[in-house]
Amino acid sequence: MKKGIHPENYRLVAFKDMSNDDVFLTKSTAETKETIEVDGTEYPLVKLEISRTSHPYYTGKAKLLDTAGRIDKFKNKYAKFKKSPKKEEAKDSE
């Protein structure tokens, strides 16, 4: 490794997922002014919107937000382009 190009201030930092209050510790150089106590020890705190414990990819729980019926509007708008099974059968038999 080259000397002098890597940060020197690696330390244990607590990352907190604000959506489910999960806290995990890892080494980081992230700067923060807040701290949190975990198992009797105080660590710098970095707040996260989403993490591995709340992300739908990792949890397998997809969230579908339908604001103002946008999905229904989309389906209605593009329903005319949907192929019907009867027309496809007629093409296949020719």
Spans of at least 5 consecutive residues whose pLDDT stays below 50 are: none
What count of helical segments does DSSP give? 3
Mean pLDDT: 79
H/E topology pattern: EEEEHHH
Radius of gyration: 25 Å
Class inferred from helices and paired strands:
alpha+beta
What overall geometry do the principal axes of the alpha carbons give? elongated
Order of strands across the widest beta sheet? 2-1-4-3
Which oligomeric form is depicted? single chain
Give the termini distance in whole angstroms: 68 Å
Helical proportion, percent range: 10-25%
- How many β-strand runs? 4
| Biggest β-sheet strands, sense, barrel | 4 strands, mixed
Residue share in β-strands: 25-35%
Fill in the keyword field for this structure.
single chain; 94 residues; alpha+beta; 4-stranded mixed β-sheet; 3 helices; 4 strands; 23% helix; 28% strand
Structural features, described:
By secondary structure, the chain is an alpha+beta fold. Helix content is 23%, strand content 28%. It has 3 helices and 4 strands. The chain has a 4-stranded mixed beta sheet, with no helix packed on it. A hairpin with a 2-residue loop joins strand 3 and strand 4. The protein is elongated and about 70 Å long.
